[in-house]
């Protein structure tokens, strides 16, 4: 199988490229070749590709900066995926797109199913919802995979932020009332490739959820990070109102992943196992960058 991937440097894009090998060819396009701010440029790549399926792993992911750049975020996260999905549909290529828990308003305490009502509470969430709607509207063979709280050895993520802060602090206040599933980028990459294979074979399609298990809070995620790192950092759990940010975040980010198992046989993995692999890599990377 040959996959055309938008995104090269991002957490998930890097992990998809790491899966390349016998039976799996990956062509990953970075911003230099395909700028999602220019949807027509992305379409041109799909029109010419010899790939069997297309994955969009690029996005505007700055949750707080999106509050001031919603127009740009909406082009990148909304228009560009829509244009890609349209081009893929015209060539009858399966199109796989990644979305987020932040399309939900975060009410309730039970996991959100894929069909539950969406109502984003911030600009990033609205821009990602625009992408979902545009991809679905093409009517092509597509999958939208919503995930949450992504971490990996590379790129910026919460694990790296916590480990960097712990270099100069032995106590941190971290929100404890936002609950979700931390998800290793490597597991998302594997999931997407499995889905792509099935879709190339004519199976599956629609909106799915995939998040690490079990659900925790950001404070719980931070504590597990420091425990694995062997660092004694006191994490004090605080309510969201005590950690003001430009963008509001949903409180309930739990995702119900059952239909992914039904359609593709994929079950959510324990994020702590993924974290144990990632933490030493992040520590090494931080040691290299003063
Ligand atoms: N990070 C998270 O916690 C979560 C992410 N998601 C979704 O998962 C997907 C992958 O996210 P993740 O791997 O974490 O992303 P990252 O933030 O790690 O990387 C974003 C990627 O998008 C690229 N990109 C941004 N703007 C453009 C542009 N205008 N043109 C081309 N490329 C661009 C970046 O390239 P460059 O290096 O050049 O900037 C980078 O490769 C996204 O759809 C995201 O919305 C969903 C839930 C949680
Ligand atoms: C650094 C820090 C953050 N926080 C809080 C702020 C916030 O509520 C929470 C997480 O902060 P972050 O900025 O890392 O997370 P954020 O950028 O909101 O992460 C989101 O990214 C997008 C792309 C997604 O799609 C989501 O699934 C989610 O992963 O932790 C603290 O409470 N204390 C701290 O010291
Ligand atoms: Mg962030």
TrEMBL record:
CDD domains: dTDP_HR_like_SDR_e. One of its GO terms (molecular function) is dTDP-4-dehydrorhamnose reductase activity. PANTHER family: DTDP-4-DEHYDRORHAMNOSE REDUCTASE (PTHR10491), METHIONINE ADENOSYLTRANSFERASE 2 SUBUNIT BETA (PTHR10491:SF4). Gene3D superfamilies: NAD(P)-binding Rossmann-like Domain, UDP-galactose 4-epimerase, domain 1. Transmembrane segments: none annotated. Its cofactor is Mg(2+). Residues 1-279 form the RmlD-like substrate binding domain. It is an enzyme of class 1 (oxidoreductase). It comes from Shimia aestuarii. Belongs to the dTDP-4-dehydrorhamnose reductase family. This is dTDP-4-dehydrorhamnose reductase. Catalyzes the reduction of dTDP-6-deoxy-L-lyxo-4-hexulose to yield dTDP-L-rhamnose. Binds 1 Mg(2+) ion per monomer. SUPFAM superfamilies: NAD(P)-binding Rossmann-fold domains. Pathway: Carbohydrate biosynthesis; dTDP-L-rhamnose biosynthesis. It catalyses: dTDP-beta-L-rhamnose + NADP(+) = dTDP-4-dehydro-beta-L-rhamnose + NADPH + H(+). Coiled coil: none annotated.
């Amino acid at each position: 199988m040959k996959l055309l991937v938008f995104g090269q440097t991002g957490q998930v894009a890097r992990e998809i490229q790491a899966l390349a090998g016998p039976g799996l060819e990956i062509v990953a396009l970075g911003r230099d070749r395909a700028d999602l701010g220019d949807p027509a440029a992305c379409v041109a790549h799909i029109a010419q590709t010899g790939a069997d399926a297309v994955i969009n792993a690029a996005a505007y992911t700055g949750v707080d900066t999106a509050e001031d750049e919603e127009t740009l975020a909406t082009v990148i996260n909304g228009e560009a995926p829509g244009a890609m999905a349209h081009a893929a549909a015209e060539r009858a290529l399966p199109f796989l797109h990644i979305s987020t828990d932040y399309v939900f308003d975060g009410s309730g305490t039970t996991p959100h199913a894929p069909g539950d009502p969406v109502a984003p509470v911030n600009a990033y969430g609205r821009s990602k919802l625009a992408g979902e709607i545009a991809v679905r509207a093409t009517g092509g063979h597509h999958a939208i995979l919503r995930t949450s709280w992504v971490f990996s050895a590379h790129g910026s993520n919460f694990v790296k932020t916590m480990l960097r802060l712990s270099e100069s602090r032995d106590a941190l206040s971290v929100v404890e009332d936002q609950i979700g599933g931390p998800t290793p980028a490597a597991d998302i990459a594997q999931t997407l490739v499995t889905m792509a294979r099935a879709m190339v074979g004519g199976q599956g399609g629609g909106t799915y959820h995939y998040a690490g298990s079990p659900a925790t809070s950001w404070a719980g995620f931070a504590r597990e990070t420091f425990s694995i790192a062997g660092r004694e950092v006191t994490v004090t759990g605080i309510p969201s109102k005590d950690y003001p940010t430009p963008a509001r975040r949903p409180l309930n980010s739990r995702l119900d992943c059952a239909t992914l198992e039904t359609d593709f046989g994929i079950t959510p993995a324990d994020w702590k196992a993924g974290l144990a692999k990632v933490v030493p890599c992040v520590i090494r990377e931080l040691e290299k960058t003063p």
